[in-house]
Amino acid sequence: MGEKVLCVEVEKTYAEKAIKALRRNNLILEDYLIERVGDKVLIPVAKTPESLEDTFFRIVECAPGYKKKLFANPPSYDSLGEVAIVRSRVLEQRAPEEVVGTLLKIHPRLKAVYVKEETVEEYRVPVLKLLWGTPVEEVIVKEYGLSFKVRLGKVYYNPRLTEEHRRVASLVRNGEVVVDLFSGIGGFPLHIASLKTALVLANDLNPTAHELLMENVKSNMKKLKGIVIALNDDARNIPERLPRGELADRVIANLPKASLGFVEVYNQVLAPGGVLHLYVLTRDVYTAIDDVSNALQGWRIIGHRLVLEYSPGSGIYRFDIVKPKHV
Fold first, then answer.
1. Which of 38, 124, 158, 187 could form a Cys-Cys staple with 165, CB 3.0–4.6 A?
2. Which tens digits make up the pLDDT trace of 169-223?
3. E strand or H helix that includes residue 155
4. Are residues 288 and 188 in the same domain?
5. C-beta neighbour count of 218 within 10 angstroms
6. Are 207 and 138 in contact, with CB atoms under 8 Å apart?
7. Which whole-number Å values give the CA distances from 111 to 20, 99, 136, 162, 302, in the listed order?
8. Which of 49-53, 58-62, 66-70, 180-184 has the lowest mean pLDDT?
9. In sequence order, what are the residues at sequence separation of 6 or more whose Cβ sits closer than 8 angstroms to the Cβ of residue 235?
């Protein structure tokens, strides 16, 4: 028996579905064995999942056995299909051959390992350097059964936002008009349209992201309940692109380093009483609360949460903000 860890406990009938959902979101502790106890299956996890695609589960403590092959302290990385991406700071602590060797043991079918060296801010695209393998231009990734084509180094995509995409989509109500000002390849819009009969205006300035957004809408069409309209424009022009007389019930502004620079757009696009999901990069959430309150005076912050750890000491937070009805 191993040390005590958190485990997801599910009925054996739903185990395969639960394992796939947990593995897709990198939540399974792969060093430990998944074990069956009676009619239940125990799946070791790094943290409590938000949901498991309508599968009932509970969190328990368990002491699973170890797998025969242990990968001590694997490097932090993102998995996109048959490609792994590590941050440049990983190579400050480990030799390249050690990083590649460990990743190949965990994912034997990898075709390439890239290093993310920086992010170019205009389109938020990563600068990737091939560390090992053969160059890969495009990959297909899955989020809750939705397929997304990603063009590496050409668009912004973060697999660690999968749960956030689903979380925000679950807040949308049927019939809403939603505007995603910085939609990338369609993470939020496709999750929303797959769950709700909503109209989603999905905009991104990056023409490659816009192209892939349209492809991703088409490839997932049979899974969509709502409508996604893809736009390729500066977010400041979106008020002019809204259907005549329409205002949004909900606006998503996932541009953490610059989201407070579009306050006038939020005012013009969002209906009174509507909700703004504003993403902010900060080292101090209380300072960010003051900044948001000063920028959107009269608006009401109804909640905030840490979405991603960005770097040591800083994080990306989502603020849920209601526009006053008298505006």
1. 187
2. 999 999 999 999 999 999 999 999 999 999 999 999 999 999 999 999 999 999 9
3. none
4. yes
5. 9
6. no
7. 21, 14, 8, 23, 45
8. 66-70
9. 181, 182, 203, 205, 255, 262, 265
Distance CA 227, CA 196 (A): 9
Query: In sequence order, what DSSP letters do the residues of 112-134 get, joined into one string?
Result: EEEEEEEEETTTTEEEEEEEEE-
pLDDT, tens digit, 9 for 90 and up, residues 166-183: 999 999 999 999 999 999
Q: What phi, psi does 62 have (nearest 5°)?
A: -145, 170
Contacts of 209 (CB under 8 A, 6+ apart): 123, 155, 156, 183, 184, 185
Kindly state the average pLDDT of the residues 127-152. 96
Q: How far apart are CA 300 and CA 308, in angstroms?
A: 23
314-322 and 40-44 as β-strands: parallel, antiparallel, unpaired? unpaired
Burial of 214: CB neighbours in 10 Å, binned 0-12, 13-18, 19+: middle
Sheet of 199-203: strand order equals 227-231, 199-203, 177-180, 248-253, 270-282, 314-322, 300-311
CA angle 210, 216, 220 (to 5 degrees): 150
CATH number (domain holding residue 210): 3.40.50.150
Q: How far apart are CA 309 and CA 234, in angstroms?
A: 28
Q: How many C-beta neighbours within 10 Å does residue 73 have?
A: 8
Most confident of 12-21, 47-56, 243-252, 280-289: 280-289
Reduce the DSSP state of residue 53 to 3 states and report it.
Answer: coil
> What CATH number is given to the structural domain containing 17?
3.30.70.2580
Q: What is the pLDDT of residue 108?
A: 86
My answer on whether 131 and 158 are in the same domain is: no
The answer to whether 289 touches 274, Cβ cutoff 8 Å, is no
User: φ and ψ at 218, to 5 degrees?
Assistant: -65, -45
Q: How far is 55 from 238, CA to CA, in rounded Å?
A: 39
pLDDT above 50 for 237: yes
